[in-house]
Amino acid sequence: MALKNRISYSQRLFFMLVLFAGILMSGFVLFQYEREKQFKVENLNIQLQLLNAQVIDELESGKTFEEIARHFQNRYPDLRLTLIDTAGVVLNDAPFAWKNEVIPNHRQRNEVSQAIEQGEGYTIRRRSENEEGDYFYSATRIGDTLVRSALPYNVSLTRLLSADFSFLWIMIGFTVMMCLFGYFAIRHIGQSIKRLQEFANLASRKERIENIEPFPNDELGEISQHIVQLYSQLQQTIADRDREHAMVLHEEQEKIRLKRQLTNNINHELKTPVSSIQGYLETIINNPDMNEETRRLFIEKSYKQSERLGQLLQDISTITRMDEGSQLIEKEMVDLNAIVQDIIAEVALRPADKRMRITCNFNRELPITGNASLLTSVFRNLTENAIAYSGGRDIFINLVKETSEEYTFSFADNGIGIDDLHLPHIFERFYRVDKGRSRKLGGTGLGLSIVKNAVLFHGGAIEAHNRYEGGLEFTFTLKKADTPPA
After folding, report:
1. Measured between alpha carbons, how far is 166 from 259 in angstroms, rounded to an integer?
2. Could you read off the pLDDT of 74-115 as tens digits, one per residue?
3. pTM above 0.70, yes or no
4. Rg of the chain on CA atoms, in Å
């Protein structure tokens, strides 16, 4: 503590500057050393690559490998040449004969594997398996032939590859000059310490920064700026808190609005079939002399409206169950193929005007851990929508992709499709592309919303788009079963 009091702030700052300059100089020296060393290594490799190319040219001219090796070894006494094929088998090696009876395959040598893949390669330093000592290897491939040249790491090669340290003195001189300049620049900082202490006291008492005198435009400006940032962060925190509070209130209001909207929609949708049933029954009651044919027609219409009312209540129940109690929905091992085949069989039994041809590109077990009722509702609602609204003749159910985690399905028809304007909204509750036609055909406006929620419940995603050749296509994913069925 006493030592800290004896050393002034400006002195400590100067020592930090000296340390920083030393680290900077050391980093630059190391960088320059490695850069120069790498340059010399690559320069040596280029020379050996040219030599390898010359060897290959001599081989192609008809000379024997031994003649070529003697020729180049007269120029480079320590040079070693090796001829290798692309399988890594050594064909010739000069000037040494291998001590082992079997020459090992060279395919895994770094320079050989690089040359086979990239045309050339080198290894800076590796111990020779045949001769004592380390070598610099450089390999070149032309066609199916590899030539590898090598130089031993003797005194001359080591000296050739070593970096020049003459620039070190320049860096030391530059560092000394920088430290001297920093020393004179830092001396006046001590004059601002007292003002900085006063500023810190104001900040600790949470007084406004605007009440203090401006700081000098020097190194201490960074410290004052840091304190300003602390105040700014505090203000930002308060603003974030207020904004989060407003967001929570907005979310709550949005939930209330959505519930109110859903309630209004449900009331509106329930009124239509209830009013129709009531109207038909009142007409029958008020007209006891109504002929039997008209009476039967009104009863049939009342029955259809009651069916629509029941379907609407069932769909609302399904939506509510997924919204508020999805964690309570039971899951089991389900075979998607069985679900699809059952729906195909059901559609095939319908009258000709209420069915479409269904083509499926899979007929094997597709296990998934999920809820059978919800998974059935996915394919059934898409099928009912296609039959009721597409105007097409065919439905195509395809497994387009399968990974270890999920299935990707395509459900498409060859009908008229829908306007692109409606595509972003078709999964919304009670949304109808053609409201009059939908009600006439008995739609509840919840089918596609159930489809989307059921897909999301099973860890998937769904999207819809018009097909280029005509019709509407749904693409969706479903997570696979956690464990394969027994």
Report:
1. 80
2. 777 778 888 888 888 888 887 766 655 677 888 888 888 888
3. no
4. 42
